[in-house]
Design goal:
Blueprint (H helix, E strand, L loop, with lengths): L1 H15 L26 H12 L11 H4 L47 H4 L1 H5 L8 H10 L3 H9 L6 H13 L7 H6 L7 H13 L14 E2 L15 H4 L8 E2 L21 H9 L20 H11 L5 H4 L8 H4 L3
Amino acid sequence: MHKQLIISLLILTTAFFANTSKLDLPKHFPKPIYNFESNPTSQEKIILGSALFYDPILSKDSTISCASCHSPYNAFAHTDHDLSHGINDQIGTRNAPALFNLAWQNSFMWDGAHKHLDMQALAPMTHPGEMAESIENIVKKLQNKKLYPPLFQQAFQDSIITGEHLLKALAQFQLSLISANSKYDQVIKGDTTFNEQEQKGYTLFQKHCNSCHSEPLFSRFDFANNGLPIDTSLNDYGRWTITKKTEDGLKFKIPTLRNLSYTFPYMHDGRFKKLNQVLSHYTNPKYQSKTLANELKSPLTISSNEKIDLIAFLLTLNDKEFVFNLKHQFPRDILIKN
């Protein structure tokens, strides 16, 4: 009976997730980097991935889910704290980055520790300060929970749960998180136009910001030292932590500028709460170091009015439809009723 109930739920949820068997990739975006041949998209995988993403069973004490640090209402970023929290209210060293448009990225986390989305979830699940669980024990818990074997059967034609399938399902849900319907996108598609202030801001953006935050994804997704003084309480050296190369010291992954109204606080350690603070950082003298990005060796020279214009443009990158899309939110019909 329980299996029949799950299948019935899947039929209902499949209708809700219509057209996700093939992701609707934006025509004005470049070709995705993710290899969909190794993990083909299906409605069933996305549904399973959604359930897993919101289920705290993935953590050792069942108190922390992926969504605890990646809220759909914050474009899947973390705004409750400057630094993300793990089990037992442990405080981490970084602010969880936003999760969307991941199919166009080839490295993950602020330091690029993982190169493949299918493996990235292992990091928070097994980190002692985050979810603190082993993949083996997660698989065992999922296998023993009546909800999951039928969901894995639907997604992978196998009710025997494996770590590989778990990670691929999580990846599929995250790949479905595509943000491409902001006012900027509508302008690019010819459906509307910028107002005068937004257009001025767009011109300033193209002159001063586009080299690192390249359109249309608004990041080139590599690593740079943006001149932030190191927080001596954290001593986080970014990319150097992974490579141990001197030239990578204080370099962090360049974040996208999309959905900034929802993803504050800003920077890898969440030190800035407002966009004005971010722009003030770039217009004031920098913390000089050997690895400082070439683009930032001279302060950004814009007036107070130009700052306002630039922020007006940045706000056109907000995608309200994405942030409040019910398809991305907590799958109540699956997790609550079962």
